[in-house]
Amino acid sequence: MSEKELRKSMAVFPIGTVMKLTDLTARQIRYYETKDLVYPERTEGNQRMYSLNDVDRFLEIKDWLQAGYSMVEIQEMYQEEQTEEVIHWENHDLSDHDVRRLFYDELLSESRLGQGNPFQR
DNA sequence: ATTCTAACA
DNA sequence: TGTTAGTA
């Protein structure tokens, strides 16, 4: 991972700052966390700390919501992302060639599903 | 002053 | 989702 990406994933702002940056209420910000849309870190005092990537994600969520998607649909979009990451980690010991093949198979099964994808509304 | 969890006239 | 109570 590049240094830029690392910085973007550093948890540095408290919920109050995220509220100002996203125009979301603290309630919504915490609610989306229960939907596994973000995983903020916690300080010793149990206070949530968000990263630049988290802020971006909240803004994205707002866009999907305004576009008419439901919470569950949005939840599923990111759920697939997470699944890919998990596969990536679990196969950390596999060769680059094997990983590429796994992704290729993934893409194939997706195109077979064709129209049924949540991104085409 | 801020944030957190839990709960609901 | 809002809001409020009692904390840390």
Automatic annotation (TrEMBL):
Database matches in SMART domains: HTH_MERR
Pfam families named among the record's database cross-references: MerR_1
Source taxon at top rank: Bacteria
Domain HTH merR-type residues, every copy: 12-80
SUPFAM superfamilies, sorted: Putative DNA-binding domain
Keywords of the record: DNA-binding, Repressor, Transcription, Transcription regulation
First and last residue of the signal peptide: none
Gene3D superfamilies for the chain: 1.10.1660.10
PANTHER family the record matches: HTH-TYPE TRANSCRIPTIONAL REGULATOR TNRA, REDOX-CYCLING DRUG-SENSING TRANSCRIPTIONAL ACTIVATOR SOXR
The protein, known as: MerR family transcriptional regulator
Lineage, broadest ranks: Bacteria, Bacillati, Bacillota, Bacilli, Lactobacillales
